[in-house]
Amino acid sequence: MAEHKRKLAAIVFTDIVGFTKITADDQTLATSLLDTQRDLLKPIVEEHNGKWLKEMGDGLILIFETVTDAVNGCIKIQEVARDVEHLNLRIGMHEGEILLMENDVIGDDVNIASRIEAFSAPGGIAISNKVNDAIARESHFTTKYLGKPKLKGVGQSVEVYCINSHGLPETNMSEVSAKLEKSSTFMYVSAGLALCLFLFLYLFLSKQDRIESIAILYMDVGNNSELNYIETITEDLIFDLASTSQGLLKVSETGKVKKYKKTDKGLDELASEIGVNYVFQSSIQKDDNGYNLRCRLYDSDQEKDRFINKWFIESKNLQTIVGVLVENIIKELDIEASSEFKRLEFDPEAYELYLQAKSIYALSVSQDDNMKAINMMEKAILKDENLVMAQIYMGTMQDEQGNFEEASRYYSKALTKGKTLQDNATIAEALRKQGTLLRKNKEFDKAVAKFSEALSISTILNDKYSMAKSLNSVAISYYQSGDKDNALKNWLQALSIAEELGDKGAISKRLNNIGIWYWKDQDYSKSIEYYQKSIAIKQELGDIRNIGKTLNNLGKIYFSMGDYKNAVVQYDKSIETKKELGDNKGLHSSIFNKGQAYFYLDEFNKSISEFRKSMALQNSDFYMNEKYRYIGMCHYYLGDYDSSNVYLSRSSRFFKEDSIKLLSIIPFQILTDIKSKNKTDTKPNLELFKRIISEKDPYPSDYVLTNWAMYEVLINLGSASDASEYLENAYFELKARSKSIKDKKGRNKFLQTKLHKNIASAWKEK
Questions:
Q1: Interior CA angle at 319 toward 317 and 325, to 5°?
Q2: Among 120, 351, 447, 465, which is disulfide-ready with 439 (CB 3.0 to 4.6 Å)?
Q3: Residue-wise pLDDT tens digits, 717-754
Q4: Tell me, what CATH number does 322's domain have?
Q5: Of 332, 361, 385, which one is at a domain's C-terminal end?
Q6: What gap in Å lies between CA 430 and CA 414, rounded to an integer?
Q7: According to the model, what pLDDT value does residue 253 have?
Q8: Same domain flag for 22 and 152
Q9: Cα–Cα distance for residue pair 643/631, rounded to 1 Å
Q10: For residue 554, what are the domain limits?
Q11: Facing residues of 292 across strands?
C-alpha cells in the first residue's frame, strides 16, 4: 500500500484562460501549449522548492514547502507566462494541511485552493487569508481584499485577496466566474463581493421567463373609523407576498398603491396605470367572533376575475388574515412558495398594537400623535421581540423625528433578530434602512456596504424588485460621495432590471437619475435624451407631479448650456404643470429659474416680472434677497440706477455676513454709483471687494459674471491694467467650462450667448 503523508503546505491551482476555445479552434496549438507550459514552468516550480504534483487538462496542482516559496514561484511563473502567446494563467493559492499521496493530494484545504483560483484575474494570483497573513510582514508584497465568499463545497469562511504588487493585475469582481454556493441562510459578504454575487446571479436568473406582476390595493374597511388601522395589514400582505413568491411574481410596492385608496377607477384602468397583470381587491368587516373577508383577484390580460371569494376568519388574530390571503393568491397563480420565506406567528395583541401604531403615525397631524404612535409601537415590541417589522418601523419613526441614534439602535436590533430567525427578507429590509441612515450621515462607504449586503440577499432570492431598489440606493450613495462612475454603473443596472420587469414608474425614475448624472458630467445632449424619455413615460402614467419636476430640471440643463430660450420653454411647461397641481413650492422654483433665464437673455423687464411673481410664493430671507440682487442688476442694465441702488442695497445688507455672496453684489453697486455720478461709496466698496477676493473666490455660478462686472468697473474708473486681471479670470473660466461640455453643439451654443461673446470680444481686443 502506498504511504500517505500528512503535512502542512502551500497549495497552488492554475488554469489557462480560454483553453477550451483554443482546443476547439486548433487542437495542435492546444497540445503544443501544454508542452510549452510544462517545459517553461516545471523548472521554476522546482527552483522554488515546489513539487509539480498533477496535470489536469490545462490545469496544474502544485505544492510548496512554504508560503514565501509559493508566492515567489508563482510571481515568476506569471512573469514568464505573460511573454508566451496564449499562456494566460489564473493562479489560486491557500495554505493548509494536506494528505499527500504519490501523485495526488486530498483534504479540505486542497478544495479551498481550487475554489480560490476562480477569483484570480487572468495573469494574476488570488490568495486566501492564511497566505495573506503569512506575507503581510514582508513589505514588498501588497494585496487587495476581495471579499468573504461562501465557496462551493467549503464549510468554513475564507477571506480572499489578490496580490497587486510585482506588476500583477488586480481582480475585477464583476468579471469573476466563480460559482457561489446558495445557502438557506444569508451569508454576510463585503460590498464588492455582494455586487459580484449580484452580477453572477442576475445574469443567470435573467434568462428566466418574464415574471408576472400584481398590485395589492389597500383593504377597504368601510366607514368604520375604528377599523382604519386594519387597512395597514395591506402593507404586511405586500411584504409577505413578495417574500413568499421571490423571483416568480412582482408585487407593486406600498408607495405605488397607496394613492389608489378609495379610488373610483376600474380595475382595468388601475392595472394599466400601475403596470401590472393582476389587481387584488379586498374588504373586511368585524363581528363578535372574527372577521368577514371579501376578496377579488382580477386578471387584466384576460379581462376577467380569477376568483371572487368570501371567507369568515374565526380567529381574532389579524395576522391570520395575511396568511390566508397570501396562500390563496399563491395557489391561484400557481406559484411555488419560496422555501426561503418563513412566516412567523406573533402575539396577537402585539400585532394589533403594531398595526394601530402605524395607522396613527401615518394619519398624524401633531407631535402628540407622533408620540402616541411611538409609545404604542414600543409596547408592541416589548410584547413580542420576534415582531421584527415593528422594530424596523420604529426605526423609521425615530429617524423622521430626528432621533438618529435611536433609529440606528432599532435597525440594529431588527437586523440581529432577523439573523436569529433566519428571516432573509427582513434582514434585507433592515440593511437597506441602516444604509439610508448612514447615507444621511454622509458615511457613504458604510452605506454602500449595507446596501450591497441587502442586494446580495435579494439576488439569491431572485427578488428583482428589491435588487433594483438596492442598486438605486448604492448608486445614490456613490453619486453623493463623488464616485460618479460607480453611480452610473449601478443606475444602468437598476434601469436594466426595471425594463425587464416592465416597471414603467421605476424606469422613469432611473432615466431621470441617469439624466442628472449626464447633466453633472456636462454631457448635455445625453442628459436631455434621458430626461425626455423619462417625461414621455411620466406622461403615459399620468404622473403630473413628477413631470413638473423633470421639466424644471430639463430647463436647468438648457440653462447650463447657455440655451436660455429653450430653458424658458421648459420652465413654462413646468410652471403650467405645477399650477395645475397647486404646488406653490415647486412653482416658485420654476418661476425663479425662469427669471434667471430672462436675465441672461437681456430681457430685463421680463426677468423683473418673474422675480416679482416668485416673491408672492416664497418670502424666505435667502430667496428674497437673491431676487433683490437680480432685480437690482436688471435695473442697472435698464439704466434705472436709483432702483438698482435700492434693490442691491437691500441684498447686500442681508448678505453682509456672507462675504462670498457680497462679491457678486459689490461690482454692480459700484457700477450703479458710477453711472449715477454718486461715487461716495465707490472707494470703500472697491477696497472691500479686493480684500474679500484676495481670500475667496465667488460662487461658481457667479464666477464669470462677477469677474466681468469688476472688469467693467475698473475700465470705467480708468484702471485698464488692473481690469485685465478680471477679464482674464472671466475668459479662462469661460474657456474651461466650454471645454468640459461634451458635445460640440452644446459647446457652441454656450459660447454664443451675449455675455460670453462680449467677454471673448474684449479678450480678443486686449
A1: 120
A2: 447
A3: 999 889 999 999 999 998 888 888 877 888 888 888 88
A4: 3.40.50.10070
A5: 332
A6: 6
A7: 81
A8: yes
A9: 9
A10: 503-614
A11: 285, 312
Name the pTM for this structure.
0.60
- Check whether residue 119 and residue 268 sit in a common domain: no
| DSSP secondary structure string for all residues of 267-317 | HHHHHHHHT-SEEEEEEEEEETTEEEEEEEEEETTTTEEEEEEEEEE----
Q: Is residue 72 one of the residues assigned to a domain?
A: yes
- In 3D space, the residue among 284, 285, 269 whose CA is nearest the CA of residue 215 turns out to be 269
The pLDDT of residue 6 is above 80? no
CA dist list (Å): 209 to 204, 237, 247, 501, 649 = 12, 25, 10, 10, 67
Residue 417: count other Cβ atoms within 10 Å of its Cβ.
Answer: 19
Angle between helices 318-332 and 348-362 (to 10 degrees): 90
Cα separation values, 576 from 43, 340, 591, 596, 619, Å: 79, 49, 10, 18, 21
Both 168 and 222 in one domain: the answer is: no
**What is the three-state SS of 657-703?**
CCHHHHHHHHHHHHHHHHHCCCCCCHHHHHHHHHHHHCCCCCCHHHH
* Bridge partners, 12 (sequence order): 62, 93
Do the Cβ atoms of 407 and 445 come closer than 8 Å? no
AA letter at 157: S
For 31: left if phi > 0, alpha if psi spans -120 to 50, otherwise beta; the answer is alpha
Q: Is 203 contained in some domain?
A: no
Asked if residue 284 lies in contact with residue 230, where contact means CB atoms within 8 angstroms, the answer is yes
Q: Are residues 82 and 176 in the same domain?
A: yes
Count: domains in the chain: 4
Q: Are residues 237 and 308 in the same domain?
A: yes
Block residue for cell numbers 449626464: 518
The answer as to whether 230 is a domain residue is yes
What gap in Å lies between CA 589 and CA 574, rounded to an integer?
Answer: 10
Per the structure block, which three cell numbers stand in for 95?
495554505
Single out the residue of 481, 516, 593, 560 nearest to residue 740, CA to CA: 560
